Hints:
The protein is built from 5 helices and 2 strands, in the order αααββαα. It has 122 residues and is α+β, with helices and mostly antiparallel strands. The longest helix is centred in the last third of the chain and has 38 residues, at 71-108.
Amino acid sequence: MTPKEEAYFRVLRAVELNPDITQPLLAKQLGISMGKANYLINALVDKGLIKIGNFRRQGDKLNKIAYLLTPEGLKNRMELTRNYIARKETEYEALRAELESLRVAAEEIPENAQAAFEEGNR
């Protein structure tokens, strides 16, 4: 999963969980700037993965909008979710192997290693 795909995944997931999410809240949740949140939303709209629904207007001012995943957006999010899970499982396995290797190495260090080190440096 590329960084761009991960960003899309995170936005699609946030929108699916909270269609009424605002761009400032989205930016805060994802730890990105408002400009990037706006860019990502617009990119996903352009790709046809998100639809913006207008629900209330007061004169010329839009008071309420919602971001809705399109069927293609839902399909895309599911594919990105599978990719994300596969990547995280690979990272988990690599980390688990590294931890096990460190545990084995730590058990092989003699208890008197510090004393032997100090003795050798005299």
